[in-house]
Fold this protein.
Amino acid sequence: MTAIDKSLIFKDTTNPFGGRKVVDVDTHLSEPHDLWTSRAPASLKDRVPQVKMIDGMRSWVIDGDVVIGMNASPSSTINKRGEKLLGTDFFGIQIEEVHAASWSTKDRVAMMDACGIASQIVYPNILGFGGQNAAKVDPDLRLACIQIYNDAMAEMQVDSGERIFPMMLLPWWDTAQSVAEIERCHKMGLRGININSDPHNHVGLDGEPLPTLGSERWNGMWEACEALDLPVNFHIGASEQVMDWFGDQAWPDVDRDIALRIGSTMIFVNNGRVMINLIMSGLLDRYEKLQLVSVESGLGWIPFTLEALDAQYFEAHPSSRKLRKLPSEYFSSNFLSCFWFERKNLSWTIKELGVHTVMFETDFPHPTCLYPIDDVETAMADLTEEEKVMVLSGNAERVYNLPT
């Protein structure tokens, strides 16, 4: 087990959470190279995601030669010594060079202990934050890849002593398969779903274009989530449409490192497009108990967005106003969001959104991760003790049905 240097984890304080219980609701797994091959049936071993040499470079491939991860980057910015890499340096390192907590369950638990974190929610890398890379292959293979990943995540949860809780990926291209996978994974103990935010950019098993998530075609999936009390997570970059680190956000003459910073900033607020469309679709009038989480998108932009949405809604023709409530009211009843590096006016923002709607994350081990962890306690100084507990652990325990 790799040693953890606490001096590299904490900045300015050795007690960043005031000694309170903490649930970290957004972290990622640097998938071990044998995650799929070690679990696949013989007929699929050569087709499931694995690392091969492509044009002289280690790369993640699927279906033999479809590249889904150039350079086989583990997407970890924490090296073996526990130091955080800056800029784009992390693109050039391999899984053997990053901290073992990025990919090893026992090392992750040891890191959590060193950070004062009781539990973590985990999301993927290789298949896409919303599983979108599975769409690059035929239906049978893509379903198998999703199911093998979920099997591995159920094992990780058990091996962690029920302290790490990965969110299940879904075969989001088909309602019936999604419902079946939700029920299967729920029986294995997984506590929430992680879904592609824009399935309408793909075709279904019948070859016809898929509808948006507001369509009644997906009702069976929402009914299963409500019946099993499973939150629906929309991670930033959960579709090809929003996964835009270096694309159209930065001007073409901007340095590559700065272009990544611009793309990383804009991808946070772009989750507002997903949130707004979910609200305006009327989905939450049909499924009033659904709990939706905007993951790794921060807080500060949300109050303005909700105020703007209400203002625009009132400008619409009365015949178009078909929601039962004000658009902003759905956030309070159905949405949660997460913060990590925000410090300016943090207590005000949390209260403005509603303390019951906010959770804490670190994004370990990605480039924006809160590592080292600074003084979260002081940043929430204007919250009551009860409110601090809700934000750091209580809301997550309620939404993800975690052991207390």
Observations:
- The mean pLDDT is 93.
- DSSP finds 13 helices and twelve strands in the chain.
- The first helix runs from residue 6 to 9.
- The domain at 6-43+100-399 is CATH 3.20.20.140 (TIM Barrel).
